[in-house]
Each structure stands twice: as C-alpha cells, then as structure tokens.
Design goal:
There is one protein chain. By secondary structure, this protein is mainly alpha-helical. It has 2 domains: about 40 residues, no CATH class; about 90 residues, no CATH class. The protein has a two-stranded antiparallel ribbon with strand order 1-2. The longest helix has 24 residues. The protein is extended, with a radius of gyration of 21 Å. The model has no long low-confidence stretch (mean pLDDT about 85). This is Transposase DDE domain protein. Pfam families: DDE_Tnp_1_4. InterPro entries: RNaseH-like_sf, Tnp_DDE_dom. It comes from Jannaschia seosinensis.
Length: about 140
C-alpha cells in the first residue's frame, strides 16, 4: 500500500491540516452518516400523510426510534463490532428473534430459544438497559 495523501482547501485559520481533516472534516462526514442512517434504516423520510401534524408526529416517532437504536448500540461492549454496527444490522441480528415474552405485574420475562446465536450479548444488553433496581 502506498501513502494515503489527502488535500484540504479551506478558509479556516490556524491548525494543521491533519487536525482540520480529522477533527472538523471527518466530523462533518460523520454527521451526514447519522442523517443517512436515520433516513435509510428507519425510513424517516416517509412523510406521505396529507396532514402536516401527522407528518410531524411521524418524524417525532422516528426521532425516538433513532434514540432507542442509538442507546442499544451504545450498550454493546466497547470492543465489539456491534458497537459500530448499522441499525439494520442490529435489527436483523438482535431484535428479529423468536422469543416468548410474558408481561407480569412488576416485570417482563423474555425467554430466548436454546439455539439463540447471540444469547450472551442479548443477556448483557438486557442487564445494561434494565431500569435501576430500587431498594
């Protein structure tokens, strides 16, 4: 592999090229990646209702869904590939599972099948996302 040379044309004052590229330019690209994930994986650009209030509610729900996926990904172990996975990958591997869910008065019981391929990760996520226990 050869050198990976990057050129930046900017009117920003101060700073070296490496700093400008890594901290400012790449951060801008990351923001665009977040918008792309919001539109692509959550279908947040669907505002097909004829009423503006309905479209606004739909966008708000998509924003909430983005936050839930973000929290799920942030709860994954720091050095695992799940921490950087796209939302549709998380949905496919961690949410679209066969499970038995029983809702009790004080708790929710989720029973995973014996052959669940990512049972350890799911149990870790359940613990990480569970509300704090009150004394």
């Amino acid at each position: 592999m050869g050198r990976d040379t990057r050129y930046i044309v900017t009117n920003l004052e101060g700073g070296r090229g490496k700093h400008l590229y890594e901290k400012l330019y790449s951060a801008r690209g990351q923001a665009e990646n977040h918008i792309k994930a919001w539109k692509t994986h959550l279908a947040a650009d669907r505002t097909s209702c004829s009423k503006a209030n309905a479209n606004q509610m739909r966008l708000m729900l998509h924003g909430c869904a983005y936050w839930v996926w973000w929290k799920l990904r942030a709860a994954c172990p720091k050095r695992s590939p799940w921490r950087r996975a796209q939302f549709d990958t998380l949905r496919l591997h961690l949410v679209k599972l066969a499970a038995t869910i029983v809702e009790k008065k004080t708790r929710i019981i989720v029973t995973l099948p014996a052959s669940c391929p990512r049972k350890g990760l799911l149990l870790l996520l359940f613990d990480a996302l569970a509300p704090p226990k009150t004394a």
